Amino acid sequence: MKTEQLVAALVADGGRAGRPIGGTVVRALAAGLAVSLALFAVILGPRVDLMPAFGTWRFDLKLVLVAVAVMAAGVCCVAFARPLSTAHWRLCVALLIVVAAGSLAMELSVLPRADWMTSLVGSNALVCTTAIPLFSLAPLVGLLLALRRTAPASPMLAGAAAGAFAATCAAAIYAFHCFDDSPLFVLVWYPLAMVPAIAVGAVAGRRLLQW
Amino acid sequence: MSFSEDPSALMRAALAGDDEAYRRLLLFVAAWLRRVVGRGLAAAGRPQADGEDIVQETLLAMHLKRETWNPTQPLQPWLRAIARHKLVDHLRRRGFTDHVDIDDHADTLAAPAAAEEGTASDARQMLATLPERQRTIVEAISIEGRSAREVGVALGLSEGAVRVTLHRALKALARVYRGEQS
Fold first, then answer.
1. pLDDT at site A186
2. Where are the domains of chain A?
3. What is the pLDDT of residue B104?
4. Chain A residue set in contact with B, beta carbons under 8 Å
């Protein structure tokens, strides 16, 4: 086929934009999160002292940390899905690092040194590292399918970012169950629990997001 | 890349449904890609014979992935990123793994003729991998230059059905270019 002939076919298909990719990604993520929320409701449920917990600074700080992580991972996921990513994601990741470092400094300054280890180990590490990968699964599948419409500069990186986005969303759900609110616990176990989704996302992305 | 018209404006017009703007843009881009790809292949020490295939694959990718362009940004960097991706992909498939920068060698190598030098893969051979219905419609529109409406009348299909089949065919064609099964 001559290139001019291909151009005729492309014009006949039309340059008019289809449905925006952002909408597709949001719908796929929402569908995946619905599955994860159902799993959460059936398997874990929110902690019994949820209402009083809102009054404690550690629980609120945990929610802020997780929310910033969701935002940063979401921005990365969208940025890496393009052939050419804008630099906004760097700002978001920097913000996440600042918030994490601030939380850590705050906890270490108020908590007696003797209690550091107890707070870090917590009592829910196993549940945390099981539940977050489990709740990541459905959102990750949704995200990867939606991202097939995109054109990532690096399919592997885009897949990893999708895994991080799914895992941070899963962590946001899990945060309402867990009563280990210390930034020491959150900053150690939550990122560890996100590793499987990120790894699966990277491997799957490399295959699924080729274009 | 130098266009006589602003390519970003042409693309915005195309996304809003202006087919004539889209045709002009694609022809401009094809000519630009020919130079970029020619330089890239020369820099990698590869024969120019595959050049037009890469040009077509890049045009297809640009078309199928046009929603990944952010209309508030200029079009050229996005186009260059797609061209680089396709060129690197092409070279990698042929066992060439070194870094290729399409911006290099801009002045050191003469640009190939802007005119098409023919394609390495025969047209019918490329299209032959498509299912029959898709192939018939693509040939009628691209090679015979007919409109979707005319093709629909000839095949006893609605114009919408022709367009849907055409779109599927283009996606399948993109997979063929990537060396996957259609």
1. 96
2. 52-208
3. 52
4. 1-21, 81-84, 86, 149-151, 153, 210-211
Contact A151 B85 (CB under 8 A): yes
* B140 close to A (CB below 8 A): no
Burial A80-94 (b: 16+ CB within 10 A, else e): bbbbbbeeebeebee
Q: Which residues of B touch A85 (CB under 8 A)?
A: none
d(CA B86, CA B61): 9
Residue B106 has a pLDDT of 46
CB A35 within 8 A of CB A154: no
pLDDT score at B113? 46
Q: Residues 78-97, chain B: which have Cβ within 8 Å of A?
A: 78, 80-82, 85
Is the complex ipTM more than 0.90?
no
CA distances from B65 to A199, B82, B99 (A): 26, 9, 24
pLDDT 10s digits, B8-23: 999 999 999 999 999 9
Tell me, what's the pLDDT at B119? 53
- Predicted TM-score of the model (pTM): 0.87
Give the distance from residue A78's alpha carbon to the nearest chain B alpha carbon, in angstroms.
Answer: 10
CB neighbour list of residue A160: distance below 8 Å, 6 or more residues apart: A198, A199, A201, A202, A205
